[in-house]
Every structure is written in C-alpha cells, then in structure tokens.
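Comment thread on ticket #2218

A.B. wrote:
> Attaching the input chain for the structure job we discussed in standup.
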Amino acid sequence: MTVKYNKLVRDKIPEIIEMSGKRCVIETLTDEDYLKMLDAKLDEELAEYHQDQNLEELADLLEVIYACAVAHGYSVAELEQVRVDKAAKRGGFVERILLKEVNED
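C.D. wrote:
> Ran it. Output below, let me know if you need it in another format.
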C-alpha cells in the first residue's frame, strides 16, 4: 500500500520511516519550491496548533518560522533581534489589550 504525502517534512523523517521497515520516495526541493512548501507547512502547523493548542505544536510552528527566516536569507539571531526591537518600540502582548475602536474627530 502506498500513501502519498507531497509535503515538507523534518530532515530525519525519511530515516525514521526506513528504520520502521518502510520505504519512502523523497526529493530535494529547489529554492522556489522550498519557499512554497514552507508556506504550506506554516499553514499546516498553525492549523495543528489551533486544534491542539499545546507546547509541542508551538515548537513546531517556531521551527518552521526559523526555517522561513533562514530560507529568506536571515539568521535566527536576526529574527530574534527584530522581534526584540519591535517589542521594545511597540510592546508585546503581555497586557492582553483589545483595541475596540479609534475615533478620528
């Protein structure tokens, strides 16, 4: 029986599959296809987080976000620095503020 996936997976997944006695077919993506598949993976992981809302799903999201940053030519350190700078300028989400409206009188 063959199951088709056509999705981006973590680097060790083919090895794990083969260690279980199964065979898999893989390919290495072009840069352009990799970016498209990362976007799809981000959607997949976000949907899984919305469903389960656990720490493991958050970690999966973070892993894909890091991969997106690197694929676009940034380092994880640069991503973190931008996050820190933005939080310093605009704040985080600690205070749980819901903006309801702005009046321009």
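A.B. wrote:
> Thanks. Noting for the ticket: The helical segments are 13-19, 31-52, 55-71, 76-90.
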